[in-house]
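pls ignore typos typing on phone
beta-D-fructofuranose + seq
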Amino acid sequence: MQWTTEQRYTRIEDITEQELTALKQKVDRSPWRQTYHIQPEMGLLNDPNGFSFFNGEYHLFYQWFPLGPVHGIKYWYHTKSKDLVHWENAGIAIRPNDDIDSHGAYSGSGIEHNGQLYLMYTGNTRDENWIRHPKQNIAVMDQHGSIQKRKTPVIDHVPDGYTDHFRDPKVWKENDTFYAIIGAQRTDLTGCVVLYHSPDMETWTFAGEVQTALPEFGYMWECPDYFDINGQGIFIFSPQGIAPDGDHYHNIYQSGYVLGNLNVHTQQLQHGDFHELDRGFDFYAPQTMEAPDGRRILVGWMGLPEMAYPTDDHGWAHCLTIPRELTVENGRLIQRPVRELQNLRGIKMEASALLEDETKTFDSFSGTSFELICTFDLEDADSCGIEIRVNDCEKTIVTYDAAGQKVHVDRSHSGALADTAYGSVRSCRAEGSQITFHLFVDSSSLELFVNDGLDVFTSRIFPSDDCTGIRFFAKGGRAACRAEKWTIGG
Ligand code: FRU
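k done
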């Protein structure tokens, strides 16, 4: 269905109760509703926003167009949790209903200040000629969860030298000063980020553009994030306009990081190479927060813009990833599922076998929503791996090609297809005679952590209901396999 501009800008406040109920009922009939991922009740979810710990709870907001699976007028929707894995819907947080955000409450972040949670976001506004005028706004949430918007922007214009693609403030505090990094596009149509500072979250001063070694790396950098882990600075951003290169950059847009410390006084960022955060099909616009115990936690949007997804026909699109803990080890960013995910574990199964050029199933290893940890020790096999969500004709395949030194995730037979214009296999390098795959599978997704968080593949899959099989294989020789599996949910 083609959505007109008028339909995209229809607000949830302007539809009737009956229309709302009909939209929700359509979504409820979708076979691909997730069981433990944050997903919208209806409509389209995109970026995680305002991820923070405040008043004894984690708060995670997301970009939301309520009325259908398209990028219409965006709201902030609020979810909260005591343990990062059981999330409670808390309703709409920011409505795009003021002069400062009339065409969408776009992405932003949260920080505690004066006993309240300050949410800094981009108000997308458009004039009568449909020209965009982004504004950076503040909304403040009190201890009771009530959110009030400031009625005037804290940054009301784009500095000279940048286009109206200027958005997604990420705030942090260093000593007594607040900093905000904002995604931008230069007037020569290259991407970058700029830095602002503030003594009080109200008055903001433009410090300058962050100087990187990537002066021409795509045409827009969305959703920047900057933080340090034990003194090692990490800069995350989502560049648009990067061409595929070998096994890299095959999605429509990328998300990645560089390691390097930002000097907030000179805006210099000395950094290493750009690395993709995720090697799967569906990952974009991640955001991090610091947990009370000092862990750095990341959540991403399990989706990408401008792509068709099978749930579009059911009136909803996308979900968020499970939270991951970030660490820096041997000069690399490592991502592991947060330990709280163990709170979701149900019945445990264990099995092991020596696979000799064969494909095997293990008793009671099946399901549509589970966690699986599997280690292969290769003797002389060329490759080994796991097939999940299997029926007679569908399967999603995770392969370690030891001979070719690669891991592949193949969703070409996963069931209904997400947009195939960007291919149906994703790969990354791996080596050695042992490999560990840690999988989180839900009704319509796979998150695969390879070798204890060295690489992650995040992908939506849309299998038929009866795809409950799990199989283990070795090809061209022998591989010993040990597997542990836990049910998640019912
Ligand atoms: C990234 C993004 C952001 C913007 C938001 C709008 O997916 O384009 O740059 O703030 O989505 O929903």
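The chain has two domains: 5-337, 345-488. DSSP finds two helices and 33 strands in the chain. more later
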